[in-house]
Amino acid sequence: MQVNGEYKPTIVAFCCNWCSYAGADLSGTNRLTYPDNVKIIRIPCSCRLNPMFILRAFQRGADGVILCGCHPGDCHYTTGNYYARRRMTLLFSMLDFLGIERERTRVEWVSAAEGAKFAATMNEFTAQVAKLGENKRLEDLRCKK
Amino acid sequence: MQRIGVFVCWCGSNIAATVDVHKVAETLAKEPGVVFSTNYQYMCSQAGQEMIQEAIHTHKLTGVVICSCSPRMHEGTFRKTCAAAGLNPYMVEIANIREQCSWIHKDMAEATEKAVILGRAAIAKVHLNAPLTAGTSPVTKRALVIGGGIAGIQTALDIADAGYEVDIVEKKPTIGGKMTQIDKTFPTLDCAACILTPKMVDAAQNEKIHIYSYSEVESVKGFVGNFHVTIRKKARFVDETKCTGCGDCTTKCPQKNVPNEFNLGMDNRRAIYIPFAQAVPKIATIDADYCTMLKTGKCGICSKVCAAGAIDYQQKDQLVEEEYGAIVVATGFDPISVEKFDEYAYSQSPDVVTSLEFERLMNAAGPTNGTLLRPSDKTHPHTLVFVQCVGSRCDGDGRGKSYCSKICCMYTAKHAMLCREKYPDTDVYVFYIDVRTPGKNFDEFYRRAVEEYGVHYIKGQVGKVVPENGKLKVQASDLLSNEQIHIDADMVILAAAIEPDKSARPLATMLTASMDTNDFFTEAHPKLRPVESPTAGIFLSGACQGPKDIPETVAQASAAAAKVLGLLAKDNLTCNPCVAQPDEMMCNGCSSCEKVCPYGAITYSDKEFRGPNRTTLIRRVASVNPAVCQGCGACTVACPSGAMDLKGFSNKQIMAEVDAICK
Amino acid sequence: MQEVMKKALELLQNGTVSRILGWKTGDFFYDLTPAVFESAEEVEKDFVFSPFCGANLSKYLIKESRKEGKIAVFLKPCDSYSFVQLLKEHRIIRDNVYVVGVACDGMCDIEKMKELGVKGVTAVREDGENLVCETLYGEKTVARKDALLERCVSCKSKKVVMFDEMLGENGEENPESHRFDKVAELEAMTPDERFAFWQNELSRCIRCNACRNVCPACSCEKCVFDNANSGIANKAAVTSFEEQNFHIIRAFHVASRCTDCGECSRVCPQHIPLHLLNRKFIKDINELYGEYQAGADMDTKPPLMNFTKDDCEPSIVHERGGDK
Amino acid sequence: MNKELAKQIQEIAGVNPRKCMKCGKCTATCPAFDVMEYHPHQFVDMVEKGKVEELMNSKGIWTCLSCMACIERCPRSVEPARVIEAVRVAVARQQGMDHLKPEQIPALLDEELPQQAITSAFRKYRK
Amino acid sequence: MIMSYFPGCTLKTKGKELDTYGRKAAEALGFTLEELPDWQCCGAVYPMAKDEIATKLSSVRALVAARDLGQDLVTLCSACHHVIKRVNGDMKNDPNMQLKANNYMGLDVPYTGETNVLHYLEVLRDRIGFDVLKEKVVKPLTGRKIAAYYGCMLLRPSKEMQMDNPENPTIMEDFIRAIGAEPVIYAMRNECCGGYVTLENKDFAAKKASAIMDNAKNQGADCVITACPLCMYNLKENGGSDLPVYYFTQLLAEALGVD
Predict the structure, then answer these.
(1) Which of B433, B642, C87, C95 lies at a C-alpha separation of 20 to 30 Å from D34?
(2) What is the mean pLDDT of chain C?
(3) Residue in A17, A45, A44 with CA at minimum distance from that of residue B72
(4) What integer is the mean pLDDT of B464-474?
(5) Which residue of B72, B99, B509 is in closest CB contact with A74?
(6) What is the ipTM of this complex?
(7) Which residues, 6 or more positions from C104, have their beta carbon under 8 angstroms from its beta carbon?
(8) With the C-alpha atoms ordered B624, B627, B631, B634, is the resulting torsion angle positive or negative?
(9) Hey, are the CB atoms on D28 and B462 less than 8 Å from each other?
(10) Do E215 and B345 touch (CB under 8 A)?
(11) Domain E2-120 falls under CATH 3.30.43.10
(12) Shortest CB distance from B477 goes to which of D27, D76, D77?
């Protein structure tokens, strides 16, 4: 999205309900700012994140997708983030293999106490994605120009 | 098509100052399916809730979107509101426009636009919501208390008092915790043992309370109302049912040089020991690290002197399995190691001690039988220097804790006062940054130390302690007179910061209870739910949640008990209806979901299906036990065919949110 | 070759099974299709076993093993991995299947042969390392190794992992298959080069679903792409990028279950090297979580349904990637 | 009061004097206390308040030993020695404000004095 | 094992013993100190001001030279070690310093703190191992009671120096044990000797130095060792004590029999 001549990427952040969504709330409670391009979708656990959702987001115009969950070992459901970690590792590696910029995807573990980390992560990730510009590659993958 | 009502909350100025709430309500009114849209100052207030209920009736709403604070705050409130108006509570979605919008953005136009998008996502989701009915699961009417200090004991006594069974798991051979090591308590100066030991005995004698001493929690499975806990009873090499606690073995054991942890290593005990005279249970324990018999197979003296025949060198750790409805964490605290603060020369001189060590040096059951003597040469000290905030209030220096340990100001005043009272010939200095005494009769207590007992309070810190020629040369600052002062002290007492017990971190992992960055357990709400963990069925008692003195600990312990009783009093718990559900028509029966389910909630059965041309087909399909499923969703992603979906967070719902956000 | 047909007849005649799953001739000699034979006559008439029997029969057993009576199946080594994987997923009723393992020296690629000038093949016989082909234009000889399907060139295993009876001598796994070479070559490229490569390949896709239909791992009762509730249902492309994720999602769905049988690439009418996507997952899994071969045994947990506490973080994708 | 200069000094120091909780640990630690008229905690406090001229005219900026004990022991990472260095640098960078002049050196030397002593004095006290 | 070596100004003249014995001992222990060909004086004081760039460049040159040789950079003088190690930290962590220094120096390959900076004592502890050193000692200094004087620059600030616990260090005591002597622990071992003001205020420097020497003596030491030429000078000349002061390398060479 272009705003006032400046590129504003659309960022979708999937946050697990127990740690990271609470961490995001905490950064709000502490009035720590991060860009408004970041929109959070609450999911019960990082393991609920289906790779389809990420691809769908990119398909519909997202420029970056980030998953935040409890730190490994601290999952509310004991093991969810361990599965998410493997799934995302392999998915990100595949996107990289297809030549999609690997800077568009990220996983960050944010606990309910890490409001500052949440805000910092979002600031950093948004800046990183903004540098890449609009996400074209996933759209173009199947149509040669 | 749903008939959706949108309610935009101002939250006073919390939202309205940054988000144009009128514009949000107007814009969202144009979304498909929205038949009513409004805004109000406080949606969570009585009037706000009534407004929602009235709209449900008037506009025959089938779905409600509330743009307000975090769903973690008021989702429950609004669900109840709607349920009372006859709408299924799961037809409510919250758009978080406070914590995740108005509070983080400054620009009104940006924040308003984002609020609209978040509202749209919630509307898109509600379109796909379906009424859900919560099932129920039974409650095991028994509680587990982890940690047998004053917090754990108080919680257990209160629960038992109400008539429920409660078990205490304590890792040490006796219950009692840190309070057993304390001499006197502030601000009344009554003897800690005199008020604690009767409670320990009460706990031991209460038929509803079972104490697992010298035991640790090995694993925790299950969920609120239905925890399955494995407890490791560590081998103490003494048969608990036979030992009478006579103590003969502890006087005959030839291994005399075992550092006595009860006196913080300032004297020795035997390899077989009872921690102290009032220990509960009063049963001997063999320390396997020091016992000659266990190490070399030669000795066996304790076995010979034991008239009860209780010694059992073959004893092994035992695993006990128990079911509980609620778990209370009461793991307490420990003083930090002062090793990183060696400018105070703790490692160089035995006369530099921590406050807890000082407590033992003043205690009648301590290594000096209650006479204050310098550890180095057992002489009477004349000049004592107390240093406050050793490792507390350190920020970013990498060696201490950022928080105030809360109890040090008061116990240091107590130590200084007791010292001056018992030994009027002493000079007592206290170096402080601030003296913090909020609490009933606390500041009066501190002032008494200064005014009546003549304790020298100096605003400043100690920079260096140099042991030389039998003295401790203390170099310090006096900020009020802007001087550097030098004191030749006989003893230096360090008020070490306190930190959560080391066992808390692995326990939190087992319980999936969250912790803050300092390893204190987090409460469900810092103000309104201070004794509950965010994980249902886990409760917090005492210093495991944050630094606390004894009265506060006991108050919180009873509060935790009250919360436990509220849970145990229920026969059934309403389950979370947002659970996984397979579409049998699409299920392959491949077991992928079963492999990732942390709760064993998924089972398989062969079912008959109609095939083509009036044939029947038998297929293996998954089914989910909704009382066991906790709704994490791991299975939904493992399922290749997409047969498994999660109610309330379905594939379609999440994708609708994605679409609304990315549009 | 005759041995296989003899075995089929024998199993039918001695009543071990009531049906045979094998291959039969299609319109051309080299165009074979899987087929079920219910009588000795049918077998004698149509049953074929030739160097063109590339098709993996295991997937058909999902339906066939649920029917009345026992069925015999001929499984080449790579097919047997798919068979075990399907058993592991409870998709095949083992008791209803009689597995005859057949040793395999690799199957032939008619396209490759055509490129070598062997056209209009009507029969083939093996002569040591060579294939002697009778064609409409006379007899032609090609070296077997030059005519092999791409997947057979880098064959991972000549071992039939599960069978009731073995025809010929069972082979060994081949750790020196070099099957990941092409993946590694792509990995070594810059992201731009990789993107160009895949854009070129995937833009040819006509979404015929042949890859999905042939894949033994893609054996869902109903595919997510056909399921209205999945949110990604689509049959044909609505917009240019509406369905671009088909191959990524398909690869992810079969990840840690794909045995690398290579059928997807074999059947692709557009010759898209789809197996490279699967192999990328397999290579990553091997490197990050330890060697794993789907279908090699019944017990090992598939890596995506498993974890260790000290697994690498997803950031490893960046770290490994460096500045390429 | 010179807020602008104080700000510059804070920037040179690269630390945040507002983090100071006035515990006095730095001054308690300081081995050069006796030869400084303003003490480490005062440097932090005065720079924060903008009272930098007094500091710049003080003798103490030349007698701070740069032993870094206050940096090590400061519980708030304020690192007073950096503040003192910043004040010293602010002075030495002004024209003609070198504290040590080459012509003074010969008189200060003795047979055993290591080069290090002179090098470091030059580095510390001159532009 | 070959390492790049930065001797520094004083080790070539007044502090020759520190250097000579250090090199001899290194050979005996099986590692070679290869003097950097064009080293320049490090400046002896680490410029703490955030905006100082030029004064740090000589250290950067030494660091780059070692990097280009693919070697660790070893120093003997505490001051050199302090300056070079901290500058290296800046090159690693401070983007402003990184950018400006690299722009100024115009290197082919930009330098971002890759070189390992080791003090000789760290080499003994982490590369050779004190247990191995102990085995190589031919003349153990049995019965000697030695007080290690750390001073400021080896230890502080510990976040950057990362050599040892800054308040309760053990590296020199372990070294003393390894050469067969008995370490004397005394509280003043990490306090400043006042060396920097010795030029201008001898009385004050003397006060600081003698407090240290007295503390060491009162705790039963019969000599003091140091790794810093300035401390050496100050303790010896201004300490007002009869306790001898040695460079640690002198005793190391003695114990290894290479003196």
Answers:
(1) B433
(2) 88
(3) A17
(4) 95
(5) B509
(6) 0.68
(7) C76, C77, C78, C158, C171
(8) negative
(9) yes
(10) no
(11) no
(12) D27
